[in-house]
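Summary for the steering committee. One of the milestones for this cycle was to obtain a three-dimensional model of the protein with iron/sulfur cluster bound, which we needed before selecting residues for the alanine scan. The sequence and ligand used are listed below.
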Amino acid sequence: MSENLTPLVGMDLPELTALVTAAGQPPFRAKQLHHWLYRLGTREFSEMTNLAKVFREWLEGHCVTGLPRVVDRRESAEDETVKLLLELSDGELVESVLMRERDWWTVCVSSQVGCALGCTFCTTGAGGFRRDLTCGEIVGQVIEARRLVPDGEFLRNIVFMGMGEPLLNPTAVTGALRILTDPDGMAVASRRITLSTAGIVPELRRLSEKDLGINIAISLHGVCDEERNKIMPIGRRWPIAEILAACREFGLRPRRRITFEYVLLGGVNDSDAHARALGKLLRGMPCKINLIPYNPSKVLPYRRPSMDRVNRFQDILLHQNYTVCVRFSKGLDVDGACGQLAGRHRNGADS
Ligand code: SF4
């Protein structure tokens, strides 16, 4: 993509209106463009047939849609998960994962290329941080994933759980959330969107103030700071107590709960004592707990606990009256865990 061309995906209707007006076109053209970009996901201006020919030619000379290019697509033979590797305008790579859940689909999007937080159990973290995604690059992942949803089915949920820490890229993420939930555009219900964070406390509080109506998930993975900091170094900046205080004060919509994600690492954080401590930590919080048995990687030193251990951990929390789900990573046969596919492409070899 030429650096001189303006990417359009990522612009909201007022921004598109300013653009078409500057091009000497009537403002209603912005609505047409908005429809082509966000409702239909059209890549080529030549296909936007209700735009005046002269305007399409102007667009060709000044703009690009800015949608990412799918450079690899892997479909799981086990569970229909589709993993997309997308190339951005500067050649960077990000991953999105499309997952079937009964008769609807969920897309997991990335918010950064790589991640600076360095969680020791995460392939993305091991690769380091490269750059933030733009608002348009986040929205573009959803548009490309939606294209793959079979006719008669629909993309219902969006989760910000891919590469990166969304609350370290808050401007682009907030812009993307506004575009994704625009009823005249992509029209995703805010209650169907979940943002997962490792606990960037000031941004969590700012997000609460914005009252966007989305759901929040906290990547907890530890029950005391000393242990958590060993696997999530960001905990040294914002300890568990501060994260939970921000959660308790988060402006939840009625009947909503915060999700706590807890990856079960064999022999590290999966004992009965850890389960009891987790229950104690979250007491009184409107929440649900997702237990995620670790998805082993060839390059990281952790192992998945036995199913007996997973079940025992869950039972302890169930007995404390929590809602507890065990969630397995989807698409294991297509490098389902975050960062694995991009890592393989960057390295040009199996990782
Ligand atoms: S788990 Fe999430 S926050 Fe931690 S390094 Fe990986 S992508 Fe970053």
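Key point for the committee: Residues 115, 117-119, 122, 124-125, 163-165, 198, 338 surround iron/sulfur cluster (CB under 6 Å).
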